[in-house]
Write a structure and sequence with these properties.
Layout: E1 2-7, H1 11-21, E2 27-34, H2 37-51, E3 56-59, H3 65-75, E4 79-82, H4 89-99, E5 102-105, H5 120-123, H6 126-131, E6 135-138, H7 146-158, E7 161-171, H8 185-193, E8 196-200, E9 203-207, E10 213-218, E11 222-229, H9 233-240, E12 246-252, H10 255-266, E13 275-277, E14 280-282, H11 284-291, E15 305-316, E16 319-330, H12 331-338, H13 342-359, E17 367-370, H14 376-385, E18 391-394
Parallel strand pairs: 1-2, 1-4, 2-3, 4-5, 5-6, 6-17, 7-12
Antiparallel strand pairs: 7-15, 8-9, 8-12, 10-11, 11-12, 13-14, 15-16, 16-18
Helix pairs in contact: 1-2, 1-13, 3-4, 7-14, 13-14
Bound molecules: NADPH dihydro-nicotinamide-adenine-dinucleotide phosphate (NDP).
The site of NADPH dihydro-nicotinamide-adenine-dinucleotide phosphate has 32 residues, from helix 1.
Length: 395
């Protein structure tokens, strides 16, 4: 029996609240806090309708740790589950340290004014969490998250030695809009428009954005074109998977998506540099976000599937081996269950499962952890049971 404080009432937050509400034996009390109270209220009303459970709601500006500390004093949760934006990670970790509350999130810290995401800022909390005897779990979404756990599972159960990993992320769905992003547009576009990067032979190789691509046959979707991007799980996996020679991350994009993105970029709409506009400072990408469909609103008419997995090559019993470990998730089924699309669903379910691992003490530790540092088996068992079945295919 435990109490969780969920911070962030966006597309992912909504799925997390629904999924926690479905497991009352672990999440006996749920509090949802976010910047805009009405968003929390709307989620609470929907969860009441679908599960009959009551969710407490609070307004919270999590940029200031003092606000969160006050809320922690009032709510006294066993765990703070952060699904606000990456900009809030450090302020929330500070608040958790101040009140000795365990912490977890789904995305690594990113400063608002530099499009650069990396773990250094959060890894710098290692000693403080250790000394306080508390645990912080980083990146418990799908990618990062489940993909890290797939790699840990491959290392533990399927291979003697892993040589290469290719993480392949395909959204084969159709939302019917000419251009929209599936999660927070600002974070999404910042991720895609920066230089690509992968790790090989002990060093990082940098490439121009979307300059390497390959067609891949995704189970449940078919052949799609995938592009090399930098993605945050590469940073921890290249350190934690022993003997690794190369790791890359690939994401699929359609022609139409790339054309829109190029035009927006060429006219300056994806820039994070503030500009003067009629006596006001505006950040172009934030203005663009206001024009684009709210990712949560895409859910209702979304069709098709996501197919995400890890293609891993290496050796087992002296022989070469290649496996693809993956999950397929159907947009319309997610909508029927929790009224969300599959991109939010595939992030929200692992966030709930990560929280469950911590609260049931199947995952315990002092310090700051990436997902592959913990035992993959209980996590994967719960993942399949709670909506994201996974498969291992020899290729
Ligand atoms: P949304 O933009 O839909 O939601 C973010 C929520 O955070 C909003 O409710 C927003 O409030 C709230 N918020 C923003 N700033 C603050 C603040 N200062 N204080 C309190 N609340 C705040 O994003 P998503 O739900 O799509 O994404 C949530 C997180 O999940 C992001 O960090 C994203 O990077 C991560 N993610 C991880 C994935 C993975 O696989 N690991 C995949 C997809 C997303 P308001 O409503 O007022 O704007």
């Amino acid at each position: 029996m435990s109490k969780v404080l969920i911070v962030g009432a966006g597309g992912v937050g909504k799925v997390v609240v629904h999924k926690c509400a479905q497991v009352p034996e672990v999440f006996s009390e749920i509090v949802l806090a976010s910047r805009t109270l009405s968003r929390c209220e709307a989620i609470a009303a929907e969860v009441k309708e679908l599960t009959g459970r009551d969710i407490e709601v609070r307004a919270l500006d999590a940029d200031n740790p003092e606000n969160t500390i006050r809320l922690l004093d009032e709510v006294k949760p066993d765990l703070l589950l952060n699904v606000a934006l990456p900009y809030q990670d450090l302020a929330l970790m500070d608040a958790c340290l101040a009140r000795k509350v365990d912490y977890m999130d789904t995305a690594n810290y990113e400063p608002p004014d530099v499009a650069k995401f990396e773990y250094s800022w959060q890894w710098a909390y290692q000693e403080r969490f250790k000394q306080a005897g508390m645990m912080a779990l980083l990146g418990s979404g799908f990618d990062p998250g489940v993909t890290n756990v797939f790699c840990a599972y491959a290392q533990k159960k399927l291979f003697d030695e892993i040589e290469t990993i290719d993480i392949l992320d395909c959204n084969g769905g159709d939302h019917g809009h000419p251009f929209a992003t599936n999660f927070n547009p600002e974070i999404n576009i910042r991720e895609i428009t920066q230089n690509g990067r992968y790790w090989e032979a002990g060093e990082w190789k940098e490439i121009p954005p979307l300059s390497i691509h390959q067609d891949f046959d995704f189970p449940g979707v078919g052949v799609r074109r995938a592009y090399v991007l930098y993605h945050e799980e590469l940073e921890s996996l290249c350190q934690n998977i022993k003997g690794l020679k190369r790791i890359r991350f690939w994401m699929t994009f359609g022609e139409q998506y790339i054309t829109h993105l190029k035009v927006l970029e060429n006219v300056g709409m994806t820039s994070i540099e503030p500009i003067d506009f009629q006596g006001q400072k505006i950040v172009p990408i934030q203005f663009l976000k206001a024009l684009l469909p709210d990712p949560a609103s895409l859910a209702k008419n979304y069709t098709g599937k996501t197919s995400i997995g890890c293609l891993i090559e290496g050796k087992k019993d002296g022989k070469h081996k290649r496996v693809f470990i993956y999950n397929i998730c159907d947009h319309a089924e997610c909508y029927r269950e929790v009224r969300s699309q599959a991109v939010s669903y595939t992030t929200g379910v692992p966030a709930m499962v990560g929280a469950m691992m911590m609260l049931t003490k199947k995952w315990q530790g002092e310090g700051v952890f990436n997902m592959e540092q913990l035992d993959p088996e209980p996590f994967l068992e719960a993942l399949g049971k709670h909506g994201l079945p996974w498969h291992v295919e020899e290729r």
